[in-house]
Design goal:
Length: about 220
């Protein structure tokens, strides 16, 4: 248990005395867990999880409740605690780029969606809807696909754009493998979205593929 540790080494006490920035990822995770298992304290359990995830917090963010429960000492309750904490962090991050934020470059979009998409094990396709000044009106998840592909039809994208009176859109999706090289499907979808946009009078400004710490822009590669 955390209470078995010296007071000055307990994550909660460290946080209260020196601020949350002082804590390692494992210590933060231990606070979320609150208690350990029969044979492992919360901090030991947290270090076990981090070790199995190669000390990469993004790997934890990509796990499902079922996958978390495979860790020794993690049951449904603790898995829900971890997933809830991760989702709260994502929502706080989402608040940093609000409606009305002006998009000036692909990096602006990537910076916003990197943490949400890069750790996922399935493809998620998002449409970012913009006004005539390239300011964000809204962003909507259009499709969540399988491990290998996301099924997206242009009408599912543009019905959202029409509903919000968008002047243009930016398509964003992730590659679970981390490799952002466009697939044939990605290229074909980009062509279809571009052509549909011309017919609808709603420009496809870019299609971004997000991987781990990297991205691919169809616009930057002059494919749009």
């Amino acid at each position: 248990m955390l209470k078995d540790m010296p007071i000055n080494e307990q994550p909660r006490e460290k946080l209260l005395e020196g601020g949350v920035e002082r804590l390692s990822t494992a210590e933060l995770l231990a606070i979320v867990l609150r208690t350990g298992s029969k044979n492992r304290s919360a901090i030991q359990l947290a270090f076990d999880i981090m070790a199995q995830c190669r000390d990469d917090v993004s790997e934890i963010a990509g796990l499902s409740a079922e996958e978390l429960c495979r860790f020794e000492g993690i049951g449904e309750s603790k898995a829900c605690q971890i997933l809830s904490a991760i989702e709260l962090g994502r929502r706080v991050h989402s608040g940093h780029v609000r409606r009305g934020y002006r998009i000036g470059s692909p990096e602006d979009v990537v910076a916003f969606f990197q943490s949400e998409l890069s750790g996922l094990k399935v493809e998620k396709f998002i449409a970012v809807l913009l006004d005539t000044k390239n300011q964000i009106i809204n962003w909507e998840v259009v499709s969540v696909g399988s491990l290998n592909a996301s099924i997206v039809h242009p009408r599912e994208v543009f019905v959202r754009a029409v509903r919000k009176s968008a002047a243009s859109i930016i398509a964003v999706h992730n590659h679970p493998s981390g490799d952002v090289t466009p697939s044939t499907e990605d290229r074909n979808l980009t062509i279809r979205l571009t052509e549909a946009g011309k017919l609808m009078g709603i420009t496809l400004l870019d299609h971004l593929i997000i991987g781990k710490n990297t991205y691919y822009s169809f616009k930057e590669h002059e494919l749009i």
